[in-house]
Amino acid sequence: MRRARDTPGARAAGTQAASEGGANAKKHRPWRRLRLPRLSALRLSALRLPRSRRGRRLAVQGLMALCVLALLPATWMRLGADARVGTTADAPAREVAMVFGAGLWKGRPTPYLAHRLDAAAELYRTGKVKVVLVTGDNSRVEYDEPDAMRTYLTERGVPDDRIVSDYAGFDSWDSCVRAKKIFGVDRAVLVSQGFHIHRATTLCRSAGIDAYGVAVDEPRDATWYYGGTRELAASGKAALDALFRPDPRFLGPQEAGVTEALASATP
Q1: Torsion angle of alpha carbons 223, 224, 229, 234, nearest 10°?
Q2: DSSP code for 143
Q3: pLDDT tens by residue, 55-98
Q4: Distance between CA 216 and CA 85 in Å, rounded?
Q5: DSSP secondary structure code for residue 109 in this structure
Q6: Closest of 220, 5, 185, 3 to residue 97, by C-alpha
Q7: To 10 degrees, the CA torsion angle through 175, 177, 182, 185?
Q8: Closest Cα partner for 104 from 153, 142, 131, 159?
Q9: Span 93-130, pLDDT tens digits
């Protein structure tokens, strides 16, 4: 049965009622007697541009100084790590490759994370690394980056016993500190996208790891530009982490996963 409001008659009645209501509303509009304040009256004097030439010049100089301060951490990290960043072909031989998580989609690695894992698998196949440490977020039962990364790597020929999982790599600093203090990693090849690898390399070096970064190439799409923009904010936090060196969100006891995986790789 069609509902009354869906019938042509109901539509016409609704139109008529709306018309009559509109006519009545025009007769009774008490709110029209209320005068709303103009927008110009609500302006804050603090938001007005200086009127004098000197004031405008100082405002521009202040804005430029803020921009420089915002870019300074990212610039420092890029310049400091640039000599230690290259491709899989450039990477030196290290025992451990370290792959940072980059999100899941329906339980599988996102394209950006998959590209990182492809680079790590290539490093393993070419003999440049013996063990892959996958570090990511497992703060929720239904979200497990390390296990998804392990599955992806085994599907591409990396033996399961050569993969070590860090389930508490909640951010880049946590991953670097835990790699050093929990898993005993002293030297590693880091794998990430170009917009992130300089920050990751700087942080791991600050955590005491002799790190070399592999920058995975990506097309300059919306995701890439978003990641690059996000790095400006993340670099500020990273600079504070490198300066004050806080403990990660979860430290925990030492684990022998990397040592045991390296022992199994020794002929």
Answers
A1: 90
A2: B
A3: 666 666 566 655 555 556 666 677 767 889 999 999 999 999 99
A4: 10
A5: E
A6: 185
A7: 90
A8: 142
A9: 999 999 999 999 999 999 999 999 999 999 999 999 99
